[in-house]
Design goal:
Order of helices and strands of chain B: HEEEEEEHHEEEH
Structural class of chain B: alpha+beta
Number of helices of chain A: 9
Radius of gyration of chain A: 17 Å
Strand content of chain A: under 5%
Shape of chain A: globular
Helix content of chain B: 25-40%
Largest sheet of chain B: 7 strands, antiparallel
Oligomer: heterotrimer
Shape of chain B: globular
Chains: A mainly alpha, B alpha+beta, C mainly alpha
Number of strands of chain A: 0
Largest sheet of chain A: none
Helix content of chain A: over 70%
Largest interface: A-C, 41 and 40 residues
Number of domains of chain A: 1
Radius of gyration of chain B: 25 Å
Number of strands of chain B: 9
Chain lengths: ~190, ~220, ~210
């Protein structure tokens, strides 16, 4: 397609933000964005797994295409992702046990985060080469973290506001997400085209 | 503090055996599904291509796939070779060459916009486009399908080759709505510049790659 | 050999109905959000996605339940994921063979069914502890509940955002569509509105039960 690296990066980060425009990574987005303290590490951990998954997916795709085993793509991607998450978990447990305990159940949940598989699938579908894939996954990770942090900050503030009980909870988070998504639409055209 | 309860861990050969069993079942299912659906999928893809080509080159009755490389043009069987560009040659019921069609893709607002364009070798111009797939905003970006003025751009879009047969004499360019001056320019849709530019960019890229390889050999396509 | 206690209260009507109302994946459990919002721009897409997920859910739960006593607990999640990925790959090819335009419309979200929390969640929480028939019925209920949720969203967004339902124009040519509804923000808003409605209805019925 001839997309430049910065176009791809800004695209995944802002214009087509992974969470707010492409609807990927919503479960953790709605689940973990309650507090800034958990949101930021979750975002960074996910971003890191995205990068690892993207590199592995690129390599896997080369192998699978060479041997015409395209029908194994989905299974191999998901296995690789699950393993990367295990790896990150082990590393975190060893080097930062407090953070590991704080993240609790959410770490293994990164495996089912559609955003990670989404990164792998989209970069394959768009036929990105290696530098483009890297730009894409870093942009996606950054975009995910950005959306998560924004949401967490907003929700922390909202706890002090007087919201009717019936709206509280997930309904409120969704409306909030909708407003965020609307504002991100304003980034359309940023860094893109001649 | 209770003394630790002995944990029952499964012997590893049992684990390997189970995983192996599961893997085999899944393998059989996947391969089975793949084999049994391949024909239907190829058939569907072929129909989709034909429908798009017939729309862009009215009067066509038969479509043949070709690939253009530095060495010339030949019918396409299997995958497109490195450096080759795929195109379709359309013939009418009498067997005369109706025109050539090729795919163009450009990144639009939401995702990639794919169009098929029809090319006439006599006038060295594009004579029509058809949108193959897009995910643009309904009511804004999707006007590229319906907007008559936009589609008029493609009734005689100049894509002449230069004397050296290395590139287009003038690159296809998308200009602001209402400011089209030359036959190789495309008037963008007011309020839908991003999607319009995606189409223009895609067509330019595709034409720049395909036409220098195709034009010198186009006579070979005549029956 | 199995360390898990099998819940043996037999098959009740609730086994099936649970997924449709009480534990509806979309409106109550709020799971499987990604495909829910991305794909529900029209009722047809929503319905197709729901059926695809239903197929994956039922087949995976069936297979998981059949081998539930053979899978050592250490590798169970990995095994379930591989099984689910297999059926998703199957659905992927089936949809391509049936209708390429539908396949284009649903896009990558077909393959993303693999990480739909509902499927893995049901396999782990229910299918791995129950006999096949019970597991299948429960999965069926969940799948239908999910499809109903998707349809509710898809229909709302299509009606408001395009003035159509299942492709049939409802309001004629002069209808000014509320385009944002078929765009990402609209997805969030419409789902939020439905959840609000549900939460309101539930608090009403709870209040009613208290005063009754």
């Amino acid at each position: 397609m001839g997309e430049s690296l910065s176009q791809i990066f800004i695209g995944a980060l802002l214009t087509n933000n992974f969470v707010l425009a492409m609807f990927l990574g919503l479960c953790p987005f709605l689940g973990v964005s309650g507090r800034l303290g958990t949101a930021l590490p979750m975002g960074l951990a996910t971003g890191f797994v995205m990068l690892v998954a993207s590199i592995c997916a690129y390599a896997l795709n080369l192998v699978l295409s060479a041997f015409h085993l395209d029908f194994l793509r989905l299974i191999s991607y998901i296995v690789v992702i699950a393993s990367s998450v295990q790896l990150v978990e082990m590393v975190m447990k060893k080097y930062s046990p407090t953070l590991f305990r704080a993240m609790g159940i959410y770490l293994p949940l990164i495996t089912t985060n559609c955003a990670i598989l989404g990164v792998a699938l989209f970069q394959t579908a768009r036929d990105y080469d290696f530098p483009q894939s890297l730009a894409f996954s870093t942009g996606a990770g950054a975009g995910f973290t950005l959306a998560l942090v924004l949401m967490a900050s907003l929700r922390e503030r909202l706890q002090l506001a007087n919201v009717p009980t019936v709206v509280q909870g997930t309904a409120l988070s969704l409306i909030l997400a909708g407003l965020l998504s609307l504002t991100f639409m304003g980034f359309a055209g940023l860094g893109g085209g001649e | 503090m209770n003394s630790p309860v002995p944990v029952h861990t499964t012997p590893s050969n049992k684990m390997i055996l189970t995983m192996g069993l599961v893997a085999s079942i899944c393998g059989v299912l996947i391969v089975g599904a793949y084999e049994s659906t391949q024909e239907a999928i190829a058939h569907n893809k072929r129909i989709m291509v034909e429908r798009a080509v017939f729309k862009v080159l009215p009067g066509a009755a038969k479509v043949s796939e070709y690939v253009a490389t530095a060495g010339g043009i030949q019918p396409l069987t299997g995958n497109v070779p490195e450096g080759g560009v795929k195109f379709y040659a359309a013939y009418d019921a009498a067997g005369a060459l109706k025109g050539i069609a090729a795919e163009a893709a450009g990144k639009g607002y939401a995702d990639i916009v794919r169009v098929l364009y029809g090319y006439d070798a006599k006038c060295q111009c594009i004579i029509g486009i058809g949108v193959v797939s897009m995910r643009e905003t309904p009511g804004i970006g999707d006007k590229i399908i319906t907007d008559k003025d936009f589609l008029k751009n493609f009734e005689a879009l100049d894509v002449r080759i230069n004397a050296e047969m290395s590139a287009l004499t003038n690159a296809v360019k998308v200009v602001k709505h209402g400011s089209k001056q030359n036959a190789w320019e495309i008037d963008a849709i007011a309020g839908a510049t991003i999607t319009s530019k995606a189409v223009g960019r895609g067509i330019n890229e595709s034409a720049q790659k395909l036409l220098p390889l195709l034009v010198p050999h186009v006579k070979e396509l005549l029956p | 050999m199995s360390l898990k206690k099998e819940t043996d209260d037999g098959i009740t009507f609730d086994t099936f109905m649970e997924g449709i109302w009480r534990q509806n994946p979309v409106f109550v459990m709020v799971l499987g959000m990604c495909p829910t919002l991305a794909v529900t721009v029209s009722a047809v897409n929503a319905l197709s996605m729901g059926i695809a997920t239903l197929f994956v859910l039922v087949s995976s739960c069936l297979l998981v339940s059949l081998i539930r006593n053979l899978v050592p607990k250490e590798v169970r999640i990995a095994t379930y994921i591989v099984i689910i990925a297999t059926f998703v790959t199957l659905v992927d090819y089936i949809i391509q063979a049936v209708s390429l335009s539908l396949y284009e419309a649903l896009g990558a979200f077909i393959q993303l069914i693999v990480v739909n929390c509902i499927v893995l969640g049901r396999a782990e929480a229910h299918a791995s502890r129950n006999p096949p028939l019970k597991a299948v019925l429960n999965a069926l209920g969940m799948g239908i509940g999910f499809t109903i949720g998707l349809l509710a969203l898809g229909a709302t967004r299509e009606i408001l955002g395009a003035g159509k339902l299942f492709g049939f124009s409802l309001f004629g040519d002069h209808f000014q569509p509320w385009v944002v509804m078929v765009l990402p923000p609209g997805g969030f808003f419409v789902l939020g509105a439905w959840l609000l409605l549900f939460s309101f209805m539930r608090s009403r019925s709870e209040k009613g039960a208290q005063h009754g």
